[in-house]
Amino acid sequence: FKIKMDDFELFEELGKGNYGTVQKVLHRPTGVSMALKEIRLELDDAKLKTIVTELDVLHRAVSPWIIEFYGAFFVESCVYLCMEYMNAGSLDFFAGCAMPEPVLAKITLSVVEGLRFLKDQLKIMHRDIKPTNILLNDKGAVKLCDFGVSGQLDRSLAKTNIGCQSYMAPERIKGESQGAVVSYSAASDVWSLGLTIIEAAVGHYPYPPETYQNVFAQLTAIVHGEAPTLPESYSAKAHEFVELCLRKDATQRPTYQQLLDHPFLSDPALADVDMAGWVAESVEYRKEHPKVSVPALA
Ligand code: ATP
Ligand code: MG
After folding, report:
1. pLDDT value at position 298?
2. DSSP letters along 261-280, please?
3. Which chain positions lie within coiled-coil regions (predicted)?
4. How far apart are CA 142 and CA 23, in angstroms?
């Protein structure tokens, strides 16, 4: 069936990104709560239609580690993407909560499984791994969203993509500055994963705050500086895992299979981690200790 705007009852805004807003909605015909993402694009209808058609591949992204996709449509100059609602929000909300190593490993495991699924089953890379694109729910599930499936959408958004906190791998930063179209591969997602793991553990973007307000300083630090590391409190195997992800030379980073076989993720005890319990505790913790947002780009 086709999803359309009239089907929805609108609820609160779940978040705002660089390109639009995400709102909680009720899909009346099915009674299912969903997340509706609005992306405002100054494009003609033909291009908007192309995007909606290209997004159709998302119907094939059926996996326990990927957000379910319900449909897309466009109205005026906005594309609407309708997806599974994750009632615990994104990983950035939990970054800085108590993050015991088994929980960090379990989150990492879900992300690596999701990335491997995208690569093996859909032949795509994610391209935008970062804490806000990793979603959680009260059952303890961890799932990926916002991966690049529409070439037209990626091209339309690319121009405005100057974040003050970049998760881009060094080779991507170098490639873009040289105007290369495809200068990166799955290994670039592995870099972004490494940075995301550290952010989840330490509670803030891993490069120094001085670089938050200066895009050039930040990109220079990523390309030429030392990669960040996990806090001391984590084990040697966790440190090694993150170091492997953050090798500056992309060809030296592990494959998804190698990551899954690494002792940080292959520990059978991870099957018993109570993720739902951790999500519940962390939501309570956040009520007492609200997340402080970083200074915006000057
Ligand atoms: P960017 O604009 O760079 O993509 P972003 O990922 O933060 O940044 P959006 O993708 O627009 O921006 O998402 C905004 C926020 O909405 C996210 O940070 C997340 O917390 C929330 N969100 C997105 N999708 C869902 C969902 N399916 N369920 C619950 N919350 C969601
Ligand atoms: Mg997002």
Report:
1. 37
2. HSHHHH-GGGGG--HHHHHH
3. none
4. 19
133 lines ligand 1 (CB under 6 A): yes
> Which amino acid is located at 141 in the chain?
A
Best residue among 132, 137, 154, 156 to mutate for probing ligand 1, ranked by most atoms within 8 Å of CB: 132
Answer for the pair 44, 1: CB distance below 8 angstroms, yes or no: no
Q: From atom 30 of ligand 1, which residue's Cα is the shortest distance away?
A: 89
User: What is the C-alpha separation between 73 and 227, in angstroms, rounded?
Assistant: 41
> How much is the ipTM here?
0.98
pTM: 0.95
Contacts of 50 (CB under 8 A, 6+ apart): 150, 152
Beta pairing partners, 75: 78
DSSP string, 156-167: HHHTT---SS--
- Encode pLDDT of 177-221 as tens digits: 676 655 578 999 999 999 999 999 999 999 998 888 888 899 999
Is the CB of 132 inside a 6 Å radius of any atom of ligand 1? Answer: yes
- Closest residue by Cα to atom 20, ligand 1, is 90
- Look at residues 173, 241, 231 and name the one whose alpha carbon lies nearest to residue 199: 231
Give the ligand whose atoms come closest to the C-alpha of residue 16: 1
Q: Please say whether the beta carbons of 29 and 82 come within 8 A.
A: no
Q: Choose, from 92, 128, 146, 189, the residue flagged as catalytic.
A: 128
d(CA 293, CA 91): 14
Which own/partner contact pairs does 258-262 have at CB distance under 8 Å and 24+ positions apart?
A: 259/112, 259/190, 260/109, 260/112, 260/113, 260/116, 262/237
pLDDT at 247: 98
How far apart are alpha carbons 266 and 258 in whole angstroms?
10
Q: Whose CA is nearest to atom 27 of ligand 1?
A: 85
Task: Tell me the pLDDT tens digit for each residue of 278-292.
Answer: 999 999 999 999 987
